[in-house]
Amino acid sequence: EWLDVHQIISLLVTKYENNLSVQLKATEPYIHADRMHLTNAITNLLDNAFKYTPENPVIQLKTFNENGSLVVSVKDNGIGIAPEHRSKVFKKFYRVPTGNVHNVKGFGIGLSYVHQIAKAHHWKLQLDSEEGKGSEFKISIPLKK
Ligand code: ATP
Ligand code: MG
């Protein structure tokens, strides 16, 4: 199914009233993918961004084109993820050890689901993070010529 990614984002962000800045800069926001999977992937990243930003959340959702791909980026100013956990958070049931790090409820499913969706569509997932400063998750979707 051909999707207008900007239209999908515009629909799903209506659920988030505050503290979400949306910048849709991609000039070619059209991809061939499953609508529900794309929606669920972005929703999972947004939910995490808010969950793991306990104070003064400023969450940014952006799209842009880069190297022949459409990039969807979700950036937060939350607790961040320490380097040793970064590759593990995409595994099923993995959660960064709680306690003094965070005490947010969850099953550790969301990112493994995003990972599965990305794999099935040949999308690239990237995570940049700084502890105590925030995280940025990017979904990079190759555009077909
Ligand atoms: P679920 O999504 O199943 O409700 P969850 O949010 O704990 O539970 P994931 O979404 O898979 O599970 O995330 C795995 C772990 O990665 C989280 O428990 C958290 O430790 C860490 N994490 C995910 N997103 C962020 C983020 N934006 N900032 C900081 N840590 C994050
Ligand atoms: Mg989650």
Structure description:
This protein is an alpha+beta fold. The protein is built from four helices and seven strands, in the order βαββαββααββ. The chain has helices at 5-12, 35-51, 83-86, 110-121; strands at residues 2-4, 20-24, 30-32, 59-66, 69-75, 124-130, 134-142. It has a five-stranded mixed β-sheet with strand order 2-4-5-7-6, covered by helices on one side. Strands 1-3 form a two-stranded antiparallel sheet. Strand 6 and strand 7 (134-142) form a beta hairpin. The longest helix has 17 residues, at 35-51. It is globular and about 45 Å long. The two termini are 16 Å apart. The mean pLDDT is 94. Bound molecules: adenosine-5'-triphosphate (ATP) and magnesium ion (MG). Residues 48-49, 51-52, 76, 78-81, 89, 94-96, 106-112, 135 line the site of adenosine-5'-triphosphate.
